[in-house]
Amino acid sequence: MNLLNQFKFYSIVFLLTIVSNSTQAQITNNITHEQALKVVFEAKKKAEASNVLVNIAVVDAGANLKAFIRMDESFLGSIDVAIKKAKTARYFNIATGDLGKLTQPGGIIYNIEVSNNGLITFPGGVPIKNNEGKIIGAIGISGGTIEQDHEIAIIGAEAILE
Amino acid sequence: MNLLNQFKFYSIVFLLTIVSNSTQAQITNNITHEQALKVVFEAKKKAEASNVLVNIAVVDAGANLKAFIRMDESFLGSIDVAIKKAKTARYFNIATGDLGKLTQPGGIIYNIEVSNNGLITFPGGVPIKNNEGKIIGAIGISGGTIEQDHEIAIIGAEAILE
Amino acid sequence: MNLLNQFKFYSIVFLLTIVSNSTQAQITNNITHEQALKVVFEAKKKAEASNVLVNIAVVDAGANLKAFIRMDESFLGSIDVAIKKAKTARYFNIATGDLGKLTQPGGIIYNIEVSNNGLITFPGGVPIKNNEGKIIGAIGISGGTIEQDHEIAIIGAEAILE
Amino acid sequence: MNLLNQFKFYSIVFLLTIVSNSTQAQITNNITHEQALKVVFEAKKKAEASNVLVNIAVVDAGANLKAFIRMDESFLGSIDVAIKKAKTARYFNIATGDLGKLTQPGGIIYNIEVSNNGLITFPGGVPIKNNEGKIIGAIGISGGTIEQDHEIAIIGAEAILE
User: Which residues constitute the signal peptide according to the record (chains A, B, C, D) (predicted)?
Assistant: First the structure.
């Protein structure tokens, strides 16, 4: 391969890398439905392994519902709680349980729960980040203990990392 | 057949009857999450084949959200429309388009859309029936033309039939 | 000065006083949109100087939204919180943080937050007063710490004073 | 310039173009607050020139409120109408007046207005597109005639084009 051809070859490789990166950046600003399904299924698998019945909600970067599944015999009241946990986690880019530490009586943001059409501030909602650490959505789990819900949410959120 | 063998035989028949009945009751009264996922995926496959971007919602026999998926780049406003179509179809056990014929000005149930926190009465929502014809839930599709939405809903609803 | 002239003189003074007061009253009873924009921009300038991303809401004397701006990358959940802080400050003519001292468990207006479609009672909302000290609206800030939000709100509210 | 150098030069130009485009795409996927303010001010200028009092709302790509201004003496009821027009335009990527043609009695999506917490389907809301034609938000105008509202919305939406 002479110098010109070599240069062309590396140029093309370099170009493809840039194009593919920019495409990826484009894609990864917001969770895709394929990623959302991956999150849901990993969370569901963990819930089944833990023998707990939950509702699983995923919202996108705009806090809009992207995917949802309710396991058989799980609480009816958990549909809304799971969705609100996911939305809360994205509204403030924080695990809902961490937010809840600040909303208690005497806390710095006491009773913020009445805003945004109802927030849920106990554990079970966590932001979903991509490989670059950028928040692209959130997951909310409801149906088990708060410890179980949080653990399942974490497993779900990490399902899209490579 | 001696008495012991006879007893064994009837015991087994009796056991099988109980098991099969309880299984059947389980299956046929309410849509399961595995069935709901089957409905969602068949609907999604049809939407992709038709090159249309939709939101897909499935509610159970109690008209509560069971499964949901929003395809990338589909309308944001279709999240709520798809869920409301599914709920409407189960609230009145009817295809939403058929209900809409009765809600027009001068119609016998004019403006019923304002009830139940908002009904959608144009095509795209249909009840989901099991093999025995019993309604066990409903599906709502939003994002395409009303003809496309209805067609995709039918494909989804029939996914659980054997 | 004879009696008639004296009378004329006082009449004119009296008339001018009435005219000037009524004109002034007209102007100062309610925040104008030009004033609201001034409030928003001073608050934004302060937020940028403090390197904090906030939502800024201004309501008028009737507690109705007058102006709003959301800085890029600020919390989605802060849209509603900022608007509710502004409304709360005008509903009760008080800084939201001061109201919050009374709404804690055991407080004299415990859980008033559930009224008025949701109040926010932690710092970040303050009434806007004109030069005469009359309340003509309110500002709400959300996105930073409660100290930052309150400080930015004060800067904004004082932007219309001369 | 020999062939190799020439090739290098064009390669670099080409690379820079790709990088700059991808960066721009990144930036322009969602309306910025500076763009939103530009939209608001152009709309306000047009309203003043037309001697009409309006409410102006801008939402981002996620249909969340980004900027708002209410002109003095404009209708109080127009606050919510303007915001709902902007949201509706983004929910379905369409001018609200065009949507309204389909929601009339006998229309294919009759009474869709009850969804999404209330849609407004008469003129005054239009999507905001960037230079590449991609929808990055929407504007809603309320206070004048529907013709005036629509015209002002168009002027506002086009303010960010170069």
Answer: 1-25
Total domains in the fold of chain B = 2
- The answer to whether the Cβ–Cβ distance between A61 and D62 falls below 8 Å is yes
Q: Which residue of A has its CA nearest to B26?
A: A72
Residues A11 and A90 in one domain: no
Given a cut of 50, whether residue C13 has pLDDT beyond it is: yes
Q: Cβ of A108 and C122 within 8 Å?
A: yes
**CB atoms inside a 10 Å sphere around CB D20:** 10
- Name A126's bridge partners: A139
- pLDDT band of residue A85 (cuts 50, 70, 90) is very high
A108 & A136 share domain: yes
Task: Tell me how crowded residue A68 is: count the other CB atoms within 10 A of its CB.
Answer: 28
Nearest CA in chain D to B147: D108
Touching A (3+ Cβ pairs <8 A), the chains are B, C, D
Cα Rg for chain D, rounded, in angstroms? 20
User: What is the mean predicted confidence (pLDDT) over D109-137?
Assistant: 97
Mean pLDDT calculated for residue range B60-64: 97
Q: What is the DSSP letter of A133?
A: S
Structural domain including B3 reads: 1-29
pLDDT of residue B29: 87
Provide CB contacts within 8 A for D27, sequence distance 6+: none
Q: Is B69 in Cβ contact with A33 (below 8 Å)?
A: yes
Chains D and A touch (3+ CB pairs under 8 A): yes
ipTM over the 0.90 cut-off: no
What pLDDT is attached to residue C11? 58
Q: What's the pLDDT at D162? A: 84
B70 in the same domain as B45: yes
Which residues partner with A125 through β-bridges? A140
